[in-house]
Design brief:
Length: about 240
């Protein structure tokens, strides 16, 4: 019985990066302007093709360095999911793997290789912008993943320069979740969660208002119980 050898499918793989940071109290995402077609000049997530001999992670960190000037050690990338719609790239069949980074305030990016420009953009603004390829969908998915991460882990504390106040931590949650939180409820939940934050015994004395207790990051990585969003504005 003879067998027919089917042609190998021509599929390429890319890594696309959703890099989020809190700047001036608001959540920002790193976007580039594409320097090559397709979508020449259009805003997009940083990223690019995986080269021969590279792993996905190596490609993701290389693209981050080439297109933005940010490097491994400054930003840690985490694989989230793959996107494989057959027509997501007009050039050919391309499967992309999305990476998420949620890092404390980062420096201004420096564009390179096929990025015409790189800049921090308010996430609110980016969500309303027509991004290249299916990058709007990727951004929405990664943003929700970042919000869930803050519900279940202590990642938010890494955004605060030690020592910090509970109000400093609350502002990180408000920036990432995009909603106002009741200060008293937030303080109660945070201070009763074992290992989340540790008191220093010192206070910050502002020019106006009451002194605020100072804290450092605790040794916990998971929040038990989780600090869940309410889905409503608690202002």
């Amino acid at each position: 019985m003879s067998t027919t050898r089917l042609p190998r499918p021509c599929v390429q793989v890319t890594a696309d990066l959703v890099i989020l940071t809190v700047r001036t109290g608001e959540l920002h995402i790193l976007l580039i302007d594409r320097g090559n077609p397709p979508y020449l000049g259009q805003p997009a997530l940083p990223g690019g093709f995986v080269r021969d001999g590279e792993t996905l992670d190596q490609a993701a960190y290389r693209e981050m360095a080439e297109e933005t000037g940010l490097h491994d050690g400054v930003v840690t990338l985490e694989q989230l999911r793959a996107y494989s719609e057959p027509d997501r790239d007009p050039r050919r069949r391309v499967i992309t793997v999305a990476y998420l980074a949620l890092s404390p305030e980062l420096p201004l990016p420096v564009a390179g290789t096929d990025a015409a420009a790189a800049r921090w953009v308010l996430v609110e603004e980016a969500l309303k912008t027509q991004l290249a390829f299916d990058h709007n969908e990727i951004l929405r998915d990664c943003l929700e993943a970042a919000r869930v991460r803050l519900e279940h882990t202590t990642a938010a504390a890494a955004f605060c320069r030690e020592p910090f106040t509970v109000a400093d931590l609350r502002r990180v949650y408000e920036a990432v979740w995009g909603q106002r939180l009741d200060p008293s409820n937030f303080r109660r939940k945070v201070t009763k969660t074992a290992g989340f934050i540790d008191p220093t015994g010192e206070r910050r004395f502002p020019d106006v208002g009451r002194p605020a207790a100072l804290y450092t990051r605790g040794n916990a990585t998971l929040l038990v119980p989780p600090l869940l969003r309410t889905g409503t504005d608690e202002s």
